[in-house]
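CO-FOLDING WORKSHEET

Operator: S.A.
Ligand of interest: adenosine-5'-triphosphate
Run index: 293
Mode: holo prediction, single chain
Checklist:
[x] sequence pasted
[x] SMILES validated
[ ] output reviewed
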Amino acid sequence: MGGAGREGLGGGGQAHVYLLLEWAPGGTLLDLMRRRGGARLDEAEAAARVARPLLSALAHLHAQDLIHRDIKLENVLLGPDGSARLADFGLSIDSSSELPNTRLGTCGYFAPEVLDCPRKRTPFELKARGEDGTPPGYSSAVDVWSAGVVLFEILTGRAPFAAPSAQAVVEAIRQRPIAYPPHLSPEAVSFLSALLQRDPATRATAAQLLGHPWMLQQGSGDGAPPAAGASSSCGGSSSSSCGSISGSSSSCGSSSSSCGSISGSSSSCGSSSMAAAAGQQPAAQDSRVQGGA
Ligand SMILES: Nc1ncnc2c1ncn2[C@@H]1O[C@H](COP(=O)(O)OP(=O)(O)OP(=O)(O)O)[C@@H](O)[C@H]1O
Ligand SMILES: [Mg+2]
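OUTPUT RECEIVED:
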């Protein structure tokens, strides 16, 4: 959790916003998966350390009409108690005051309805509601989908929409049946299926998912915070990343993008950090997307 302070409004008219964040010493979820060689988390650990705090954070944000828009392994940090903290609000949007209709985020984590939205030359195009040609907007359900991708990754050790090319990743997101490995419990499959509904109208909300039988079955867990674990690190950046199990760094400056499933640790985002952790070949090319709200 963080606090913000503002100063310097007088004189030169410049504002400086400082965010004080809780220190998350455990690194990112991606780091955790790498440390474990790409091995999956067992269901109890995944529920307690990640699913519950992540969904609590999303339920808290969504109740305020805020959409994060870049949920992925590298934006989920691990706090002192080892449980998840949601970070990196650089692409977040207040949907009560602005229409979210830009195709941005991280490609392997794109919800299907995000794929229907355009990339834009500037953040301000096609924003007015009802404006001629305004593309359909999306909702906080996009975060639930992306959280579903994250949880699938940690529960299975692989990305749900991995494919050999960027275009194939997009096609996989749109229509490839999701293969749930047999080691998953029926409740876990039901849970993941509730997040990974292609129709946002039938996708469960974060608040509903906290009451899903799989969550209840896993109990309260060790070390899971009871409420939203949001560690906000908002750089105000309008750029976004594109890739599923994504890497530790990226070039966020490109205004064009190709979509990849598993992004890498370099600016071309061409390799899978999780695949690398597991000693596999990268699945798709990837690059970062720049976009506004
Ligand atoms: N509260 C925190 N505690 C510990 N580490 C943090 C915290 N906030 C951010 N970090 C570290 O900084 C990294 C980048 O933070 P963040 O995701 O907010 O910015 P970003 O815009 O994605 O930056 P980058 O482009 O470098 O990934 C995180 O992956 C994490 O390693
Ligand atoms: Mg980040």
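REVIEW:
The longest helix spans residues 43-62.
Confidence is low (pLDDT under 50) at residues 222-293.
[x] output reviewed
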